[in-house]
Each structure stands twice: as structure tokens, then as C-alpha cells.
Amino acid sequence: MDRIDFRSDTVTWPTPAMREAMASATVGDDVYGEDPTIGELEAVAAQKTGKEAALFVASGTMGNLVSILTHATRGEEVIVGRDSHVMLWEAGSISALGGMVPNTLPTDQYGRMSLQAVEDAIRPDNDHLPKTRLIHVENSYGSKYGYPISPDYFAGIQDIAGRHDLKVHLDGARVFNAAVAQNIDVREITQYADSLTFCLSKGLCAPVGSVICGSTEFIKGARRIRKAVGGGMRQAGILAAAGLVALEQMVDRLDIDHRNACLLAEGLAVIPGIEFDFDRVRTNMVFFNLTEDVPYQASDIAGKMREEANIWVGTTGPRSFRAVTHYWIEEADIELFLDVLSSIIGN
Ligand SMILES: *Cc1c(COP(=O)(O)O)cnc(C)c1O
Fold first, then answer.
1. Per-residue pLDDT reduced to its tens digit, 179-234
2. Cβ contacts of residue 250 below 8 Å, gap of 6+?
3. What is the pLDDT at residue 2?
4. pLDDT surpasses 90 at 1
5. Which atom of ligand 1 is nearest to the CA of 142?
6. Which atom of ligand 1 is nearest to the CA of 210?
7. 63 within domain boundaries
8. For the chain, how many helices (H) and strands (E)?
């Protein structure tokens, strides 16, 4: 990349191995169930997450929507974190398209709803009330520094769901980051969810796609809903081929991105004018702020970094930034980032 792009891991280009796999992929009509490469991707995804079956979808947003629509219906309630991705960044889709009632709860500094609050939010059986159907969780938690939440929390969620006959859906857009950061198999997390989605198109570098995983029966229902929302794809094995490379080659190396995020955080910590909470940097994201005495706004600094060094950084407010590490960011890019930022702030 001539552009050094820290805005997100969604900006990642497919790797050379992906482009090769895409060029030679065997394809068929997937709406007829005849694309062998998609079939293989779904089998590998199910196996890796410890579920019976899987379904390839166009995006993480579609994966969450299709999953939630499969679990619940109009007028039913979903217990969900107030600052979760599905509440903030998916165009209100579960209400707009699904007619569902979100029962939003605050989350702690790591993105966890309190278990007591979840239990208290469940509606008693009463004709006046919406019927609670689903608990929606997320890992890693995007709004809280991409924090990797530990499996015991999800064990607690599953226990509540089991006692109240609810389902659990995990938005695992970056669940492989969450697993790698904790040095555990992803199944230690996914075992506590009835269904999950994960993204191939973020840190795993595929150009397109997410996968829904769950029971055979759940995936059968999800396939029908995917069709209803226009997500039936034809020779999309050409995309799934990149997804297979993502799952086979790109998961273990996420560790490098986490190390690079840590390097970035270490460098930021010694730049006067920058402040942030180091302990929360655990995956591939670093959120940081300008101290009051810095005479620039975040957008001014981001603009200068682009002009001076073709470094792109995300701004999350007038005084705050987000930098995300990924396959196309190397150690030398981190050093350049730190040099350019400190010289801009120092002037
Ligand atoms: C990116 C993301 C999604 C949505 O994925 P898209 O492919 O961008 O639609 C869902 N949840 C979380 C936590 C995400 O980070």
C-alpha cells in the first residue's frame, strides 16, 4: 500500500494468495446449492467455530440481520448493549426491517452488560409486554477499544439464556482477534452462543464476506431469510475462495497486528500531548486523545498526516483518534506514524 491506512482493518486489500485462489476458484450457482468453493468455506467455518453448519453472507451487517431475523420476529425483544455495533452502526436494521424491539443495556469498560441487568431485563410472560427472545453479545467489543471479552462472561450469558428459554447470538465480527488475543481456541468463546457471525473482510483481509455459524436447523432458516433480503449469490465461490485463504492463513498471524498495536501504544504513551488508557489496548485497535493544551483539533492533525506522509488515521471526535493495525501495516509504518505525529504536535 502506498497509502498507509490506519483508519480500519476493513481497508485491507486481498493478499496475493487470495487473488490467486480467486482466479482459479471452481464455482457454481450457490442459490441452487452448487458452488463447491462456498460449500467448502461453509464447512471449514463451521468446523473452526464448533458449529454444525454455516452460511456465507455479503457482510457482517447482513450476517447479524439474517441471524436475528432467524431467531426472532416482529414485536419480540432483543437484549443488546447500548453501544454495540448492531445498535450504532447497522442503520437500525433489526427495527427497520425486522420490527424488533431492542432492550438496550449499558456496557462496562470492556463491553459487557452486567449479568444481573440482563436477567432483570427479561420480560415476564404477560400479554402487555414484548416477548424477550434473544440476547445479543459482541466480541471483540468495537466501542470499547476492541476489547477481547473472556469466555466466562459468555458462559454466564448462556446460563441466563438457558434458564429463560432465550437464544444467544454473538456478533463475532472480530472474534478471531478476541481468541488470538487471549491465546485460546475460538471455540472456547463460540461454544456459548447459539449462533455467531464473523467477518472475513476485516483483519482477515478477504475483499468481501462474512459467515453465519449455527445448528443445521438454524442455518436452514437463515438461508431462507438471506434469500428474502436479497443475499442469495450465484457464482460467489470466487469470493469464498478468498475467504478460505483468510481462514487458513490469516487467523494465526493476527497476533502480529496485536503486537503492532501494542508498539504503537507504547510510542504514543511517550508523546507529550497524547493521552489514553494503555491497559485497554488488547487487540488491533488503539484509541487515543489529545490533551487540552494541544492547539489543534484531531481533524487538523489527521489532515496533516495525510499531506505529509500519506498516513491515514481515523478521528472519532474533535479531540480523539482511532488507529487500527492490520496485515498491510508493518513495524516501519508504526515508527513513521509516531515520528510524523510527534513532529506535528511538537510544532
Ligand atoms: C464491522 C462490524 C460489523 C459489520 O460488518 P460489515 O461487513 O461492515 O457490515 C458488525 N459488527 C462488528 C462488531 C463490526 O466490527
1. 999 999 999 999 999 999 999 999 999 999 999 999 999 999 999 999 999 999 99
2. 15, 203, 204, 205, 327
3. 82
4. no
5. 13
6. 7
7. yes
8. 14, 13
Residue 26 in any domain: the answer is yes
Cα(10)–Cα(326) distance, rounded to whole angstroms?
9
Ligand 1 pocket member 323 (CB < 6 A)? no
- Residue 295's domain spans which residues? 253-346
**Residue 347 predicted with pLDDT over 90:** no
Q: What residue's CA is closest to ligand 1, atom 10?
A: 60
List, as one string, the DSSP characters of 212-242.
Answer: EEE-HHHHHHHHHHHHHTT---SSTHHHHHH
Q: How far apart are CA 101 and CA 104, in angstroms?
A: 9
Query: Does residue 10 register a pLDDT over 70?
Result: yes
DSSP-derived pairing of the beta strands 320-324 and 314-317: antiparallel
Residue 336 lies in a domain: yes
Q: Look at residue 233 in the predicted model and tell me its pLDDT.
A: 96
Tens of pLDDT, residue by residue over 269-317, are: 999 999 999 999 999 999 999 999 999 999 999 999 999 999 999 999 9
> CA–CA separation, 280 vs 283, rounded Å?
9
Determine whether the shortest distance from the Cβ of 175 to ligand 1 is under 6 A.
Answer: no
Task: Write down which residue in 250, 268, 293 finishes a domain.
Answer: 250
Residues 258, 206 share a domain: no
Q: Which atom of ligand 1 is nearest to the CA of 84?
A: 13
Determine if ligand 1 sits within 6 Å of the CB of residue 194: no
Take residue 22 and report the three cell numbers written for it. 480467486
Q: Strand 53-57 to strand 210-214: parallel, antiparallel, or no bridges (unpaired)?
A: antiparallel
DSSP 8-class letter at 278: G
pTM: 0.97
Question: How many CB atoms lie under 10 A from the CB of residue 252?
Answer: 10
CA of 71 from ligand 1 middle (Å) equals 19
Nearest atom in ligand 1 to 59's CA: 7
Given 250, 278, 302, which residue is the final one in a domain?
250
Record the cell numbers describing residue 42, joined without a space.
461453509
Does any ligand 1 atom lie closer than 6 A to the CB of residue 210? yes
**Interatomic CA distance for residues 108 and 153, integer angstroms:** 12
pLDDT in tens, 64-76: 999 999 999 999 9
